[in-house]
């Protein structure tokens, strides 16, 4: 699958930013460092609430450019993605566990992982170099994350430059490496001319290796002025020769790959003090990988004429004898016969001289995988022609666990469906098991557990080994009142009809096949009627369904359409309004056999439908709201003064005409959440919502008269996913700091059939599904503002629960219940710790601690607690000796019941 660059700013403008399991065990979380300014650390803490989270299963869906096996512990492996974080392999479940879901909104770029390193000396240590773009699209510098518990928790050292997990050349590597003899020493190859960097304190601080002579000079497209294609790809891999060191002493021989076609490999023989270009090396190519077989002393290079990961028209494989200094071209095919570059490269640590490589950029008719058992002297390949166009395969490929990988294709030979893949820049043989091999593609991770059958003339079985990796970029979501609970619009792979959230769908949308679906909608009173639009290389850019998305047919389109834009279905399915890229807003009746230009609304406007009146449609562009009452034929400008810049999304409330919620804006202008109850004639800004980026509706809480409102927003200084069960009068944060997923602003919707269930878009971590254990709908909110004093006659009950504990630290949740007859108008809770515990961080409240005495104050918007309702907060703290629970609590000096 082609994994697009996904520039953040461009995706926002197009409404397109990219069985998963909820985290088991301690959630991954970054913790603080005390470090110099150039390598300052970042903090992320854990919060807890009544929600549990999982993915709507798709399994894969994006580029996996790196797979790393630990070489001293069996079954310990990691995978990196270009925009969707990092994962650890769970052998017991044959699945991957996400490690970077804690990355927050402000540091969304840290979801792009440019390199991973697993420590051979201490397998508990793992490192990740993170940052998505090296240009202005990513607002933050890159960082090296380090974990001493296999990714369960993290510390971060921020670098004084950016990293490019989703930049050209991201399949090369690994750029990050741990010295296999002295694990306090690490190296990092930097892009953008920033050179080679080294840490001597296990990743806590970093400094440039000023003696390294070449920062690289290759850029994919020097004429590109965006900073994307013209960025210098820099230092692309680091490889140690562990034979040149001993336990506790730094490795002396280090090899480094550089994005420079004339000078692509350098070596140090004195532990990194001095460096020199290796003489006799191949020129005219970039070394995507450099892997050393320590048993034979051979360093292998896979080379391509470009940095990848999509392109590459010529390639070679070379071998360097580290003892003699001799170079040899050991390519499996003649240079004239290549139309691809080589990248994926691995040696079998159990069988010296056995190695494999991939033709990463061969899309047609398929990728190719090569294998040698004699140090590259001779090769065999995964498939051969038996007489064009027929081919013989050494493998079988079973995608029954992820059936959509067939893409619904029925190609003519020599193509097959499913294919072995494309963008195959990561291939690794398990260092403990010659029969297990995994490789990444643009859409999945494939693997085998009987690889050596290749050598005996048999066939080996390839299957997806991708369960748990959810890497789709989600552009839009819809949850109809009947039929499938969820319809998705996804980047790169179109989208799915999800009939079972815990099962992989059979196939993405077809007829038409859209590269990326940018918008979809259903008719509120006739949910079998669904429309979707998106991007593709050719028309049509629109499809319709009359059976709730099970089957589709292509629609016609106005002239000039170049992309999907946004689309809206009339409440009863009688017509549609479409605002495509390349053409103005248009409307149609029926299923789009012909389109008529709408008047009174500018091109590029975002369009939605009223969910009750089929003649009423809405539009928004540049601060002005537009309304049509004649099925989209004419629009009239209504409310103004809304956000004139930034991302703006709005939704109309199901079942009520004219009730509209609008979210969006920018830091430099209006930003927040607005509501109209008069069909867009006027809007009122929601107090207390500082920023909001998407809004949606779910089933009303028990006893509530208004549907539950969900937003991706910033409230009280805290970014998160929020829920309101009282039409926005109060808000509850329903995610926690361990579940933030970077950027979540594209789309959000509740489920109209299940109270509390919410579907959240991410840019690379798929569709997140939140389920609540709260049956009522009361809640708590984050913040720091203290509330007013509570009435003296209020009564209270308190529950205090330690939810997680580790040596020297713990996490606790506290719930305050109003057992009186009058509402609290603000509250202050007090107690004394019996064991001298100290609160380190608190959420959904603020606190003051004086010795053992603690006073916790509401967060402002959770200060009003009705009789019978509750407010809650949580915190992390430290303890020594014992961690006994407090025995008594007071609310404004009045004793509470403890239960």
Automatic annotation (TrEMBL):
UniProt name for this protein: Cellulose binding domain-containing protein
PANTHER family to which the protein is assigned, alphabetical: OLIGOXYLOGLUCAN-REDUCING END-SPECIFIC XYLOGLUCANASE-RELATED (PTHR43739:SF2), XYLOGLUCANASE (EUROFUNG) (PTHR43739)
PROSITE patterns, sorted: CBM2, CBM2_A
Cited SUPFAM superfamilies: Carbohydrate-binding domain (SSF49384), Oligoxyloglucan reducing end-specific cellobiohydrolase (SSF110296)
Keywords: Carbohydrate metabolism, Glycosidase, Hydrolase, Polysaccharide degradation, Signal
Signal peptide positions on this chain: 1-30
Lineage: Bacteria, Bacillati, Actinomycetota, Actinomycetes, Kitasatosporales
InterPro entries assigned to the protein according to its UniProt record, in alphabetical order: BNR_rpt, CBD2, CBM2/CBM3_carb-bd_dom_sf, CBM2_carb-bd_dom_sf, CBM2_CS, WD40/YVTN_repeat-like_dom_sf, Xyloglucanase_GH74
Region (Disordered), start-end ranges: 766-792
Organism in which the protein naturally occurs: Streptomyces flavovirens
Keyword Signal attributed: yes
Family the UniProt entry places it in: Belongs to the glycosyl hydrolase 74 family.
Record domain CBM2: where: 789-899
């Amino acid at each position: 699958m082609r994994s697009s660059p996904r520039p953040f700013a461009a995706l926002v403008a197009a409404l397109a930013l990219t069985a998963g399991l909820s985290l088991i065990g301690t959630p991954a979380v970054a913790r603080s460092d005390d470090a110099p300014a150039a390598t300052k650390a970042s903090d992320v803490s854990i919060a807890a609430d009544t929600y549990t989270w999982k993915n709507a299963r798709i399994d894969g869906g994006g580029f996996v450019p790196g797979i790393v096996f630990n070489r001293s512990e069996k079954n310990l492996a990691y995978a990196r993605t270009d925009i969707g974080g990092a994962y650890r392999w769970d052998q017991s479940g044959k699945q991957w566990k996400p490690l970077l879901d804690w990355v927050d909104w402000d540091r969304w770029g840290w979801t792009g992982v440019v390199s991973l390193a697993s420590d051979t000396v201490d397998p508990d240590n793992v490192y990740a170099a993170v940052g998505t773009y090296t240009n202005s699209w990513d607002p933050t510098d890159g960082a090296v994350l380090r974990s001493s518990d296999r990714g369960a928790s993290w510390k971060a050292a921020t670098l004084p430059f950016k990293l490019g997990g989703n930049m050209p050349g991201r399949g090369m590597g690994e750029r990050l490496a741990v010295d296999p003899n002295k694990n306090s020493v690490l190296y990092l190859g930097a892009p953008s001319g920033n050179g080679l960097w080294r840490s001597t304190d296990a990743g806590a601080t970093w400094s440039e290796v000023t003696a390294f002579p070449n920062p690289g000079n290759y850029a994919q497209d020097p004429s590109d002025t965006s900073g994307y294609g013209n960025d210098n790809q820099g230092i692309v891999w680091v490889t140690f020769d562990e034979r040149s060191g001993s336990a506790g002493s730094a490795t002396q021989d280090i090899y480094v790959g550089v994005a420079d076609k004339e000078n692509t490999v350098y070596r140090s023989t004195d532990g990194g003090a001095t460096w020199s270009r290796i003489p006799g090396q191949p020129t005219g190519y970039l070394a995507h990988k450099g892997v050393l077989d320590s048993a034979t002393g051979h360093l292998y290079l896979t080379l391509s004429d470009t940095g990848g990961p999509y392109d590459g028209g010529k390639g070679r494989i070379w071998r360097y004898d580290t003892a003699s200094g001799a170079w040899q071209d050991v390519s499996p095919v003649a240079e004239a016969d290549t139309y691809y570059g080589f990248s994926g490269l691995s040696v079998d640590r159990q069988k010296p001289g056995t190695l494999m490589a991939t033709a990463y950029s061969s899309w047609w008719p398929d990728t190719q995988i090569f294998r040698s058992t004699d140090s590259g002297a001779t090769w065999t390949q995964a498939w051969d022609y038996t007489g064009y166009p027929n081919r013989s395969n050494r493998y079988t490929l079973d995608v029954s666990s992820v059936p959509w990988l067939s893409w619904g294709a029925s190609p003519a030979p020599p193509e097959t469906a499913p294919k072995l893949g494309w963008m195959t820049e990561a291939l690794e043989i398990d260092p403990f098991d010659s029969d297990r091999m995994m490789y990444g593609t643009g859409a999945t991770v494939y693997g085998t557990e009987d690889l050596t059958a290749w050598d005996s003339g048999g066939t080996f079985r390839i299957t997806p080994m991708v369960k748990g990796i959810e890497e789709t970029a989600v552009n839009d979501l819809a949850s109809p009142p009947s039929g499938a609970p969820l319809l998705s619009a996804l980047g790169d792979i179109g989208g799915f009809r999800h009939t079972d959230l815990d099962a992989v769908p059979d196939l993405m949308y077809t007829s038409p096949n859209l590269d990326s679906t940018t918008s979809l909608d259903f008719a509120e009173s006739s949910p079998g009627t669904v429309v979707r639009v998106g991007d593709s290389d050719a028309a049509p850019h629109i499809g319709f369904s009359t059976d709730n998305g099970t089957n589709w047919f292509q629609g016609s389109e106005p002239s000039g359409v170049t992309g999907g834009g946004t689309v809206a279905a009339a409440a009863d399915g009688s017509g549609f309004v479409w605002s495509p890229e390349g053409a103005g807003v248009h409307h149609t009746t029926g299923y789009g056999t012909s389109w008529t230009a709408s008047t009174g609304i500018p091109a590029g406007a975002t369009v939605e439908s009223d969910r009750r009146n089929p003649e009423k449609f809405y539009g928004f562009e540049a601060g002005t709201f537009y309304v049509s009452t004649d099925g989209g034929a004419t629009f009239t400008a209504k409310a103004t003064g809304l956000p004139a810049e930034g991302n703006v999304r709005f939704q109309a409330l199901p079942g009520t005409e004219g009730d509209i919620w609008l979210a969006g804006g920018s830091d430099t202008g209006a930003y927040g959440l607005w509501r109209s109850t008069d069909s867009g004639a006027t809007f009122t800004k929601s107090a207390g919502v500082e920023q909001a980026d998407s809004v949606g509706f779910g089933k009303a809480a028990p006893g509530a008269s208004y549907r539950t409102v969900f937003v991706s927003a910033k409230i009280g200084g805290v970014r998160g996913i929020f829920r309101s069960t009282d039409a926005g009068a109060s808000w509850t944060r329903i995610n926690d700091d361990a579940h933030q997923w970077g950027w979540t602003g594209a789309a959000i919707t509740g489920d109209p059939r299940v109270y509390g269930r919410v579907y959240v878009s991410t840019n690379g971590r798929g569709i997140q599904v939140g389920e609540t254990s709260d049956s009522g709908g009361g809640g708590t909110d984050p913040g720091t503002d203290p509330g007013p004093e509570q009435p003296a006659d209020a009564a209270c009950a308190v529950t205090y629960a330690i939810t997680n504990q580790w040596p020297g630290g713990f996490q606790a949740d506290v719930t305050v219940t109003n057992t009186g007859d009058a509402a609290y108008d603000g509250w202050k809770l007090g107690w004394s710790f019996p064991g001298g515990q100290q609160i380190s961080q608190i959420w959904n409240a603020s606190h003051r601690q004086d010795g053992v005495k603690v006073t916790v104050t509401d967060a402002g918007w959770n200060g009003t607690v009705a009789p019978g309702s509750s407010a809650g907060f949580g915190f992390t703290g430290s303890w020594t000796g014992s961690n006994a629970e407090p025995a008594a609590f007071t609310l404004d000096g009045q004793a509470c019941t403890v239960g």
